[in-house]
Write a structure and sequence with these properties.
The complex is a heterotrimer of chains A (344), B (433) and C (345).
Chain A: E1 2-9, H1 16-30, E2 34-41, H2 46-57, E3 66-69, E4 82-86, H3 108-126, E5 130-133, H4 136-146, E6 151-152, E7 171-175, H5 184-191, E8 199-203, H6 210-221, E9 228-231, H7 237-246, E10 249-251, H8 262-269, E11 274-277, H9 283-286, E12 293-296, H10 300-312, H11 314-330, H12 335-342
Parallel strand pairs in A: 1-2, 1-3, 3-4, 4-5, 5-6, 7-8, 7-10, 8-9, 10-11, 11-12
Chain B: E1 2-7, H1 14-28, E2 32-37, E3 54-57, H2 61-69, E4 73-78, H3 82-94, E5 98-101, H4 107-114, H5 118-129, H6 131-136, H7 143-150, H8 157-163, E6 166-169, H9 175-181, E7 186-188, E8 211-216, H10 225-233, H11 236-241, E9 242-247, H12 252-265, E10 268-273, H13 277-286, E11 289-291, H14 303-310, E12 314-318, H15 321-324, E13 332-334, H16 339-352, H17 354-371, H18 374-407, H19 418-421
Helix pairs in contact in B: 1-18, 3-4, 8-9, 10-12, 10-16, 14-17
Chain C: E1 2-9, H1 16-30, E2 34-41, H2 50-59, E3 67-72, E4 83-89, H3 96-99, H4 109-128, E5 131-134, H5 137-147, E6 152-153, E7 172-176, H6 185-194, E8 200-204, H7 210-223, E9 229-232, H8 238-246, E10 250-252, H9 263-270, E11 274-278, E12 294-297, H10 301-313, H11 315-331, H12 336-343
Parallel strand pairs in C: 1-2, 1-3, 3-4, 4-5, 5-6, 7-8, 7-10, 8-9, 10-11, 11-12
Helix pairs in contact in C: 6-7, 6-10, 9-11
The chains are: A alpha/beta (344), B alpha/beta (433), C alpha/beta (345).
Chain lengths: 344, 433, 345
């Protein structure tokens, strides 16, 4: 089939948002399809929104047998066989309207834009032959705000066969961008409450230097420098695979994220349990407390208890690691499943 | 919300009076209102209605611009009088907003505006009415000819409507042209008006007293005074039992003409000229019947007719335009084609059955005082604003494209093909094309 | 700098411009920049949709980008404060093709209006660009004539010069590139029939149609050239093509009146191979100096046969011509570092 993958993007920001598109493109190409990837920019400024949306309506991809649309407002692109793998709305107009993330006033004009957006989005969504999302969280939002039904289709990680398990040392690894909402600082604080010699390794870098600097400060303040490795730099795929293969467990505890996040997935492929918190959001669709990881309260004390348990109860930890891999099978997180659903 | 309302504020403006009522209702609803008065500069010093809020002249560029920039919506009261609405037209092009359209015929407003801008005016006329009408437009010999020749072919309703983000008007008869030109939504709302002098009194209508007919306002031929005189004169009962009074400004030549006509026709005619508000109110209260005949009828709603009804008076109207839309049971309609005959019959009926005359007045009063309220107008305006703002989201986006196309010296027609418009239909307004 | 290359996309069609964009990206990164290619879907049929495609492009908000290099209409209509054009194509159907009636713009007022919009939009974008480069003299002339804007010719360099190492000289003349009537590979076969029996030929490249393949086979049959000719008619994997060039004795490229030098000639010169061409081939003549870098034959089988014989006659001389071709080519300064420097000025 000729398939066009359509998404909006920020030029020169890669990873995260683009992975799902690029990895799907590779997978489809390998499966023998002809794939075209359409990335167009989108600036979510209220006054510019609708002219950009109208422009998207003129994107002509009739040469494709079907199109698959990802990030907003790509779902506006018209096509007789449009499939959505819906990642999120323009959230400041939706569920983040009543939060500080909205950086414009909720005056009459912006309220009007909001309502017009709901209307246009709902219509565009209704044009789709099928709507998939990356998590139950997003599916719920689609239902609440646009009253459309959708099927959860979990995004797999690319070439998962790279990940393997070589054993369980005494380090809990947190391999992820260094950002405040990922809460590496919480893990450091938790370490200071642990009673076992469990260690943590933080790998990754941030969009700016500030958070990394703050983490170093936190490590010193908590007096845990001898048990923390903080590698504030961009980590290669090989390094990630290597680290996950030997670690005790993986931590992933962002604040209220929609999707479970690739780090959780990668850890599961490496047969490592996942340490997360009750308020992490989509991760809880993947992690079941005591089955493939621990779900602690988002407090240092609670996390510390879980960390000690992972260290002390080795056989449980290893069993949970095996379960983590099985969980992926149970949730059908695989490219073959993705292709089956998208091409149905 | 913060609303900036452009309106004539001068005391002699009926639109100003109406706006004042609406503004007070809006203020009672906890909105912030700023009034920008729109009269031509030589009238800006005249005394204004009391709006109860900040009021500034449209010529205060900086201040006006600042108020507009922080407003949720601009509202323009527009009527067919350039002296009263010069500022409204000026700002409407710069800061689009909702137009409250008081007159469907805007020929006089347009002519006043066109004086300094003949080229632009010609473009507008050509755009809406074609080259032929544009060429002939400014050559009408006098006012009556002008109205007669242009009211049906080139009323300029489209001109103002096309500049508005939405239109609120007060009757349906002229809406086709509004819809054809306005990119935003249209609402028909009963005009807000009041009659503070309408205190209830018992009329001393002794069985043998004459039927007191009254016409108020500027005494001109639109008000069909000659027709009334003729109708009365054609029937001996009417001649004997009807007293016709005119209260309002009248030029000497007109006064002379009417007096002569009345004398020759044997009709009792009282000409009171212009009087103060209190006297006017008393005159209305004392009347049995108000003649609100109008031809031609150019306004969206007649404040006079509403006022007459609010006073509880039997009101005679011409069966056209706004008046045609009034419920039959509340006013007495006279056809255009058979005016004199109909008038005669109506007057005879009123004269012979005085209690029925009183009744229809009272019923009209009950209905009018519930319908033509400022409260209702304010509520409808509040409901209209979000609808207009939503439509404006789409209009603004379309304008973005229109601006680019214009810069390429290309016609907007290039965008009106099915393959270009059809995908935009999900934005679900009739604002595109 | 963060450099965004902006091009059109004709969905599922990949051609020279797409290759160029990708190679430009690659070389920008080599030069230390970050580079991405943005491809905007462009639908020009029916002509009435063209205005919407122009508006689509003009409405895109490009941010987090330091510099834009745009290649074609309507991609170059994008707005950006730092925009350079490397003009591969205007919409010729509004210009020179319009003049000769080869256009999808209707011959009515609407067609004229669309054309006017294209011209005005073009002029606006040309005026707001920092620099305008074109990929050929022909494009430069057209731009000047139709829009009144001057530009600098910036020839696209070889995409992967490091692969064309040359150094080996087998016993064949290589004729690469697309196979069709205009490229005239058939004439090379006719020449082969008249040339010395030692002369061998490899013709490799994608045929435009079965008729083109047929034409070559007929000649091979007719003159019994089977043991002296190898036909490899398909879209060649790059490595295969590179190998053919690197091991050739000389390279023949004899199209009819082409604008540009042609990648075949550029790659051959990079690989230090002598060039055989014809006097009416157009752009390639700039690389073929008789006696120094190769042979210019008349466009006849006899004349070409002489050139082929000459190539085989003295291998030393042929190698020398190859060196000469490379020197001449290098002297033109058509390489990626200089190209990028110009594009980012």
């Amino acid at each position: 089939m000729k398939i066009a993958l359509c998404s909006t993007f920020v030029p020169f920001i890669r990873g995260g948002g683009r992975n799902i598109v690029d990895w799907l493109a590779s997978t489809l190409t390998e499966a023998g399809h002809q794939v075209e990837v359409v990335y167009l920019p989108e600036l979510d400024v209220p006054d510019l929104l609708f002219q950009q949306m109208m422009a998207l309506r003129w994107v002509d991809l009739q040469a494709a047998d079907r199109v698959i649309c990802f990030r907003p407002q790509a779902h506006l692109i018209p096509h007789p066989h449009k499939i959505l793998w819906f990642i999120h709305h323009i959230r400041v107009f939706y569920d983040l309207w009543d939060t500080p993330y909205r950086d414009f006033a909720d005056n009459a004009k912006h309220c009007a834009i909001r309502e017009a957006l709901f209307d246009a989005d709902t219509r565009a969504l209704s044009e789709a032959k099928a709507i998939f999302t990356n998590s139950k969280v997003v599916s719920a939002r689609l239902k609440t705000y646009n009253d459309v039904d959708s099927e959860v289709l979990y995004p797999p990680v690319f070439e998962s066969e790279r990940f393997f398990c070589a054993g369980y040392n005494d380090e809990i690894a947190y391999i992820c961008r260094l950002e405040h909402h990922k809460r590496q600082h919480l893990l450091i604080e938790a370490l200071s409450f642990t009673t076992t010699p469990v260690r943590i390794r933080l790998l990754g870098t941030g969009s700016g230097p500030d958070y990394g600097i703050a983490l170093r400060q936190k490590i010193n303040d908590c007096n845990v420098a001898d048990r923390v490795i903080l590698d504030d730099r961009w980590i290669t795929e090989e390094e990630k695979v290597e680290c996950l293969s030997t670690c005790l467990a993986a931590a992933y505890l962002p604040v209220d994220e929609d999707s479970y996040g690739y780090p959780s997935l990668e850890a599961s492929h490496a047969e490592k349990p996942i340490l997360t918190t009750t308020d992490s959001g989509g991760v809880l669709e993947l992690v079941q407390d005591g089955y493939n990881g621990y779900i602690a309260e988002p407090t240092p004390e609670s996390l510390a208890i879980a960390m000690d348990k992972l260290y002390r109860e080795r056989s449980t930890t290893e069993a949970m690691g095996k379960n983590a891999k099985q969980r992926l099978v149970d949730l059908k997180i695989s490219w073959s499943h993705v292709l089956e659903r998208l091409l149905a | 919300m913060k609303l900036v309302i452009f309106t004539p504020a001068i005391k002699t403006s009926a639109i100003g009076r109406m706006t004042r009522l609406v503004v007070r209702a809006l203020l009672a609803h906890q909105h912030q209102v700023v009034v920008i008065r729109t009269e031509s500069p030589h009238l800006l010093a005249k005394e204004t209605h009391d709006f109860g809020c900040t009021i500034l002249p449209w010529t205060n560029e900086a201040e006006a611009a600042q108020e507009i920039s922080s407003a949720d919506c601009c509202i323009y009261q527009i009527g067919d009088n350039y002296e009263f609405h010069e500022g409204g037209v000026a700002w409407l092009a710069r800061a689009p907003g909702i137009v409250c359209l008081h007159d469907f015929f805007l020929g006089h407003l347009f002519c006043g505006w066109a004086q300094q801008r003949r080229d632009e005016a010609n473009d507008i006329l050509t755009q809406w009415y074609g080259k032929k009408i544009a060429a002939d437009y400014f050559s009408a010999s006098n006012s009556a000819t002008f109205i007669r020749e242009t009211q049906d072919l080139a009323p300029l309703t489209e001109w103002i409507s096309s500049l508005a983000t939405g239109v609120i008007t007060h009757s349906n008869w002229g809406c086709d042209r509004v819809l054809s030109a306005c990119p935003g939504p249209l609402f028909v709302v009963p005009l807000a008006y009041d009659a503070p002098g309408a205190i209830s009194i018992e009329n001393e209508s002794t069985p043998n007293s004459k039927l007191k007919v009254l016409t108020i306002g500027h005494i001109n031929s639109n008000k069909r005074i000659e027709s009334c005189i003729e109708a009365i004169s054609n029937n001996s009962i009417l001649r004997k039992n009807v007293s016709y009074r005119l209260v309002g400004a009248i030029i000497p030549s007109m006064e002379r003409k009417l007096r002569e006509l009345a004398t020759v026709s044997g009709v009792e005619l009282i000409i009171s000229n212009e009087v103060d508000d209190a006297t006017l109110s008393e005159a209305i209260r004392n009347a049995d019947v108000i003649s609100c005949l109008r031809w031609p009828s150019l306004e969206a709603a007649s404040a006079s007719a509403i006022e007459a009804m609010l006073y509880g008076k039997a009101t005679i109207v011409t069966d056209v335009g706004f008046y045609k839309e009034l419920p039959d049971q509340y006013v007495l309609k006279v056809s255009v084609d058979n005016e004199i005959e109909d008038l005669k019959k109506t007057l005879l009926s009123l004269q012979s059955n005085r209690s029925a005359t009183t009744t229809i007045g009272k019923q009209a009063q009950a209905w009018a005082s519930e319908t033509f309220t400022a409260e209702n107008y304010a509520v409808r305006l509040e409901q209209a604003i979000p609808v207009v703002l939503r439509a404006n989201v789409i209009i603004s986006a379309a304008d973005h494209f229109a601006t680019i196309i214009d810069k390429w010296s290309a016609s907007p027609q290039l965008l009106r093909t099915p393959e270009i418009l059809e995908p935009l239909s999900i934005f679900n307004t009739n604002t595109i094309a | 700098m963060k450099v965004l290359i902006v091009n059109n996309m004709a969905p599922f069609i990949w051609g020279g411009a797409e290759e160029l964009a990708v190679n430009l990206q690659k070389n920008l990164i080599i030069a230390g920049h970050d580079a991405e290619v943005m491809r905007i879907p462009f639908q020009w049929e029916p002509a009435s949709t063209i205005p919407s495609q122009m508006l689509l492009t003009r409405t895109l908000e490009i941010f987090n980008t330091d510099h834009v290099i745009a290649l074609k209409f309507p991609a170059y209509l994008v707005r950006h404060h730092r925009k350079s054009l490397w003009l591969l194509h205007q919409y010729r159907q509004a210009y020179d093709l319009y003049d000769v009636g080869q256009t999808n713009l209707p011959a009515d007022q609407t067609g004229a209006d669309i054309r006017k919009a294209i011209i005005n939009a073009d002029n606006e974008s040309f005026a707001e660009s920092r620099h305008i480069y074109t990929n050929s003299e022909v494009t430069r002339k057209r731009l000047l004539k139709h829009n009144g804007f001057d530009s600098q010719v910036l020839l696209p360099p070889v995409n992967d010069p490091e692969s064309f190492i040359g150094g080996q000289f087998d016993d064949y003349i290589f004729a690469g590139g697309r196979v069709n009537g205009m490229k005239r590979q058939y004439m090379l076969l006719e020449a082969l029939a008249k040339a010395d029996k030692r002369v061998k030929l490899i013709i490799a490249g994608p045929p435009e149609s079965p008729a083109d393949t047929q034409q070559l086979n007929v000649i091979i049959e007719k003159f019994s050239l089977q043991d002296r000719v190898k036909l490899d008619l398909r879209f060649l994997p790059r490595a295969t093509y590179v190998d053919y060039v690197n091991r050739a004795l000389a390279v023949a490229y004899i199209p009819f009146d082409e604008d540009s030098l042609g990648y075949v000639a550029m790659e051959a010169a990079t690989a230090r191979k002598a060039l055989i061409t014809t006097t009416d081939s157009g752009g390639i003549l700039g690389l073929v100096t008789p006696g120094e870098t190769g042979w210019r034959a008349e466009p006849t089988a006899e004349s070409l046969a002489e050139a082929m014989n000459a190539a085989f006659e003295s291998k030393t001389r042929t190698k020398q011509y190859g060196e000469g071709a490379q020197a001449l080519w290098n002297g033109l300064g058509i390489n990626w570092p200089e190209t990028i420097e110009a594009l980012l000025k």
